[in-house]
Amino acid sequence: MMPVLLVLLLAVVLFGIGFVVKALWWIALAVLVVWLLGFLFHRTGATGRRTHWYRW
């Protein structure tokens, strides 16, 4: 009985890790899209120069 419970526990843990990793990939993809849009859409500053939406 104990080996069966250990296998089931291992399956649940691995499923949870897989779900978290998949969710992190979707979050990374969304951040990448926002980052690329920042390069495409520039705004003009007070001096007439084109600036990025972020400050680095």
UniProtKB/TrEMBL annotation:
TM stretches of this protein: 26-46
Keyword terms, alphabetized: Membrane, Transmembrane, Transmembrane helix
Protein's UniProt name: Hydrophobic protein
Taxonomic lineage: Bacteria, Bacillati, Actinomycetota, Actinomycetes, Kitasatosporales
